[in-house]
Design a protein that fits this description.
This protein is α/β, with parallel strands linked by helices and 358 residues long. Helices cover 41% and strands 15% of the residues. It has one domain (11-314): NAD(P)-binding Rossmann-like Domain (Rossmann fold). It has a seven-stranded parallel sheet, sandwiched between helices. Strands 7-11 form a two-stranded parallel ribbon. A two-stranded antiparallel ribbon has the order 8-10. The protein is globular and about 60 Å long.
């Protein structure tokens, strides 16, 4: 199947729409596809009348039934967590077991699924003292253990790679999103401290991606035909010391990078922030990804360089492109009105059919 032969998506399912990024992807996709469905264990942060939402957990096999019954042709899998300090079985089940269930739902005989887009993370590379200047997409290896989140991402992407090999009729895209700074991310909370504990003797390079660029990349992957693995991050870097200065904080070199778990414990004791292991590694050694493949294949690059992302967050502008959460009553009201319109539409079609038989 060539890229040109791939039909425009009509029935799209987005997993993980309860967070701001998932909601933004849904908002951008809604005008472009006839039927949009979303699922998550929690309600979306904002109601979207053009999306049918169902409570469903990707960690359960029922997600496959959802794909089949709704005749989904495009799956955008965003129910992947990389920003939680909770590196335990629940996170593993979300990232690995959840992805396995989603892919299993796309592999049934005569499956209508022709596109699968998976949200991954730059965290898959880990961070260490011997890292290259730039990570390209083919540099994921198992030569070092990394954090639990990093290992889970590698296992998850291995499942996706196997699915792509066995299902040649489906175009599979994996997007490794760069680090993000919004009100919800642990990196942003760390950088927002007035006094920021840092690793003694280290000033790592940070590379960021704006929320709207992350959402745009996912939407372009869902609408277009760009199989493969792509890094997605803003151009350029900022040093950790520069990021702290931009936020108006003051660096306090008190942590030791070669005892990461002890450093994380000390950081939590000092600030109350329990950073994920892979973020702690990046704050010691840095991480920069090469996005040349994205530019070449998509014909598009993130609009905001890393410095602009950092400046925007410092100005408090990072939430402008994401709708504010809807109050529970407003969400329920919009769901109710959506259901009424659908029923009226069905009734109207039934009435016209009856008149046609008279």
């Amino acid at each position: 199947m060539t890229s040109e032969a791939l039909a425009v998506p009509r029935r799209v399912l987005i997993t993980g729409v309860s967070n701001p990024l998932g909601a933004e992807v849904a908002r951008r996709l809604a005008p472009q596809v006839p039927y949009l469905f979303g699922c998550d264990v929690a309600d979306p942060v904002s109601a979207l009348e053009d999306m049918d939402f169902v409570h469903a957990d990707t960690r359960h096999a029922v997600i496959g039934k959802l794909v089949r019954q709704l005749r989904i042709d495009t799956v955008v899998h965003m129910a992947v967590t990389v920003d939680s300090a909770r590196e335990d079985r629940a996170a593993h089940e979300t990232n690995v077991i959840g992805t396995m269930n989603v892919l299993a739902g796309c592999t049934v005989p005569a499956s209508p699924v022709t596109r699968v887009v998976v949200k991954s993370s730059q965290a898959i590379y880990g961070a260490g003292p011997t890292d290259p200047s730039f990570f390209s997409e083919d540099m994921v290896g198992s030569e070092r253990q990394g954090s639990l989140a990093t290992r889970d991402l590698r296992e998850m992407e291995s499942l996706v790679s196997e699915f792509a090999l066995r299902n040649s009729m489906s175009r599979v895209t994996v997007l490794r999103l760069g680090y993000r700074v919004t009100a919800e991310t642990m990196l942003a909370k760390y950088l927002s401290l007035p006094i920021v504990p840092t690793f003694t003797g280290f000033d790592p390079r940070l590379q960021l991606v704006a929320e709207e660029d992350a959402a745009e990349a996912i939407v372009r992957a869902a609408i277009g035909a760009h199989p493969g693995v792509y890094n997605v991050a803003g151009a350029g870097v900022v040093l950790l010391s520069q990021a702290i200065a931009i936020m108006g904080g003051r660096a306090a070199p008190v942590l030791f990078p070669y005892a990461r778990w002890m450093a994380r414990f000390g950081l939590k004791a000092l600030t109350g922030i329990d950073l994920p292991g892979h973020v702690a590694d990046v704050l010691a050694f840095g991480s920069v990804a090469d996005c040349a493949r994205l530019t070449a294949e998509f014909g598009w690059s993130p609009a905001y360089p890393t410095r602009a992302v950092m400046d925007a967050f410092a100005r408090g502008k990072e939430a402008e492109v994401i709708e504010a959460p809807s109050p529970p009553q407003e969400y329920e009201l919009q769901v109710y009105l959506q259901r009424r319109r659908r029923q009226e539409h069905i009734g109207h079609r039934g009435g016209k059919a009856l008149m046609g038989r008279q």
